[in-house]
Amino acid sequence: LPQAGPGVTPVRVMTVAGSDSGGGAGIQADMRTFAMLGLHACVAVTAVTVQNSTGVTGIQEIDPAVVAAQMHSVVPDIGVCAVKTGMLASDPIITAIAEAATQLGIGGDTGVPLVVDPVCASMHGDPLLASDALGALTERLMPLATVVTPNLDEVRLLTGIDVVDGASQRAAAAALRESGARWALVKGGHLRGSEHSPDILYDGREFLEFPGRRIDTPHDHGAGDTLAAAITGALGHGYRVPDAVAFAKRWVTRGLAAAYPLGAGHGPVNPLW
Ligand code: PLP
Question: What molecular functions are annotated in GO for this chain (predicted)?
């Protein structure tokens, strides 16, 4: 991947996501991966979470108009080659982002690639998306998505499908595609009892399987964010979606293998190593 250099404007990407005060997930995870991939990262903050290694104890949502204004400020001036959404907190914030994305040429069939990581809760179970916001996510944002990257808990919330094996994982990918996302990546990482954790990528024609080595570590905070950020970064660099996913899988596997303990809870994945 080409790196930024003196006097050379690097590829720009944007993350539309929440801040993690503990520095493990959210915007902070995205920025680490983007920096490592030689990208200039722009940010639209959706929420400030009060969070450490043991969980989330507070959330301050950003005014939806301010979320949209951050996008309107950055995109025409700096320009972005790919955009990622993470924690979006509420229906009004999602609605504002979807409107801004449409106006700014982000996502859809002709816009810059849009990776929608449908973050619903932290791994501790702290809600990061209002329960009444799922409709806005599926009806307004997913139709704009180039790729949607749910884990199995998010799949259940978005499609009602309980993924227990490869067949239900494929059915979930097909259901997600029907919400309008061009590609659905159903991550298998939370599939219990399986030695491997294949992710399934589907574009409506072909199911692609990405086998993964399961890394047994309690320090996996921000793994989902890091995977989606690496996909976004690779798309920004011009990769095709399947190649971006293959790259991102390796990226997050390496980050999990190099994860470190932090505080009394779960440490972050460490793609810097
Ligand atoms: N905090 C923020 C701001 C996030 O965006 C996310 C995930 O996207 C999390 C926390 C949860 O991360 P994890 O499930 O790895 O704890």
Answer: ATP binding; hydroxymethylpyrimidine kinase activity; phosphomethylpyrimidine kinase activity
